[in-house]
Amino acid sequence: MVAADSAREAAAQLRRALRETPTVELRLDWLKSDSERRRFLVLLQRNRPRRAVLIATCRRRKGGGLLAGSVQDELSWLAQAAAAGCLWCDLEVESLRKLPRDSIRKYPLPRRILLSVHDFGRMPRLDAALEARWRGQVDAVKIAGVARTIADSVRLLRFAAKSRNCVAVPMGEVGLPARLLALREGSALAYAPVSAATAPGQVSLREMKYLYRAHALNRQTQVFGVIGDPIAHSLSPLLHNTAFLARRINAVYLPFLVKNLRDFLKAAPDFGLRGFSVTLPHKQSILRHLQDCDALSAEIGAVNTVVVRRDSSLYGCNTDYVGVLHALGKKLRPGKSRVLVLGAGGSARAAAFALTRAGAVVGICARRSAAARELARAAGAEVVPRRALKTESFDAIVNATPVGMYPDTAISPLEPGELHCRIVMDLIYRPERTQLLKLAAQKRIATVSGVEMFLAQAIAQWELWMKRRAPEKSMRRAVLAALRAEERGRSSP
Hints:
There is one protein chain. This protein has 17 helices and 18 strands. By secondary structure, it is an alpha/beta fold. It has a 6-stranded parallel β-sheet. It has 4 domains: 1-110, Aldolase class I (TIM Barrel); 118-219, Aldolase class I (TIM Barrel); 223-320 and 456-491, Leucine Dehydrogenase, chain A, domain 1 (Rossmann fold, 3-Layer(aba) Sandwich); 330-452, 3-Layer(aba) Sandwich (Rossmann fold), CATH 3.40.50.720.
């Protein structure tokens, strides 16, 4: 999808897009003026790409676009796009309703017409009448609606699967997994921007093609994912999809924004999920929905990994436990050490149990005193009030809260005067060097990045699902490259 405010940038985006795909939508309404639209169409006509299928769109504001003009203005631009070589045009239903019945073919538009129905507030009503009403006047129908629930996106995919020449576009972050699976489920097209996103819940063309390989997914593709809220920050899709590609496994790992666990679990069979990672805030509540879990996860009271068995039952386990010991163990022998765990959620529970079982004396400090007391009792730890941190000393402090996580990277869960220890470990991995770790380094305290735990727990997850050795070097390389590129981007002027 090409969407730019200048003719020059639109032409550059088109060249980049055609290196990846022969089918490109041209958002003429995004161009900032009529003169820029004319300039771009002249460039297109002079440099008409061979064997490319171009879809012209000039959506009016009433239809969710940027064109300030009338229906006749829209039709005029689409006619000029046809003359410039566009084979298809996208015409929103609001415009078609303004025209006399059965008159659309009288206009000199591109030969093929894609009727688009957009609803930016919810999922539109889906039934056969929607298609039948316009059949004969148009060549295909696109349904784009906001998925408020995962079940919404499933309904849209089902509609596309049983419809002829239908394009399914679940919008919003909740709809992203279905958007990535749309081609596999029968949608005629899937949309991804070359540059800036034009609608919520989009991933870039390069991500769609190379990270998720949406064009190559089929019915034999094994589907995995991560559930959480928020989830956009997660690098788990990069980590696991890199491993699938390195081992040449037909599988994909998708990010699921899950606000309601029941909604997700009800829809999970429609995605054919074989397993999923669990992150904030569902690590403890997922236990109520499992048919079984290992003894350690039951004791910890938190699960970060779920296996979907052949009978569709859910089996839970906890690889955070492994991750904490692996990462912290590089700089500290837990036995007889005194370690403070900051937080009382699912990650904190895994850290507390891992460290106490390894022989450490563990203190729990949490904003919610009742949660701190409950975790301390369960793990055999002690409660340490926040006020005590100004005077108490520890061998290590482990942050298991989300404070300081991307995008709120400028804050720290502790102040410099509360860091009386030899080692500070942050379970947050994005950014690689959190504000807490920077404060610790300024005080010459050794640090352990959450990247180490993130990699260790994810590798254990991957091997649990795949029953084979993970490509650890490829996974580490991909995650570190992404984090360091992001850091360079933040530090650039």
